[in-house]
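Retro notes (design track)

What went well: tokenization of the new backbones is finally stable.
What didn't: we kept losing track of which sequence belonged to which structure.
Fix going forward: every design gets posted as structure first, then sequence, in one message. First example under the new rule, 142 residues:
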């Protein structure tokens, strides 16, 4: 809990706003919930590969949220509404976010087949975790 407060206060100082850090911190529960939902729907269990993927997913979702918020703040200086600025930021940053999100998923899948003793459901679960949760979390609003 103390870490969340520390991160919130750090983002408040960075953005000079009390409301904008909530958008960044709010991405973490959404990303974790969607990843766990995909694991539950696929019938996969919790293992070291899934936990590594969750840590990576937390980092990717917060990095993406920070990028979108920063870009939306810049667009707000051009007298755009909050919704229009956020939508335009998400659409313009979509390709960069997609490349960042999918690169670890592909490389970790190749490493998984080389490190693990046998290709089992843990490797498949990590591929599924990254592929589906990345696509669902970073799809731009229409």
């Amino acid at each position: 809990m103390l870490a969340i407060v520390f991160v919130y206060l750090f983002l408040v100082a960075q953005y000079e706003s009390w409301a904008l850090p909530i958008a960044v911190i709010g991405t973490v529960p959404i990303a974790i919930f969607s990843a766990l939902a995909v694991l539950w729907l696929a019938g996969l269990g919790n293992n070291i590969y899934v936990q590594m993927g969750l840590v990576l997913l937390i980092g990717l979702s917060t990095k993406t949220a920070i990028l979108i918020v920063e870009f939306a703040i810049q667009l707000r200086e051009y007298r755009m509404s909050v919704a229009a600025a956020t939508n335009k930021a998400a659409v313009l940053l979509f390709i960069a976010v997609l490349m960042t999100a999918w690169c670890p998923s592909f490389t970790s899948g190749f490493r998984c087949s080389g490190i693990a003793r046998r290709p089992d459901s843990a490797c498949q679960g990590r591929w599924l975790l990254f592929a589906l949760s990345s696509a669902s979390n970073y799809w731009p609003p229409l």
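Added context from the reviewer: The chain is about 80% helix and 0% strand.
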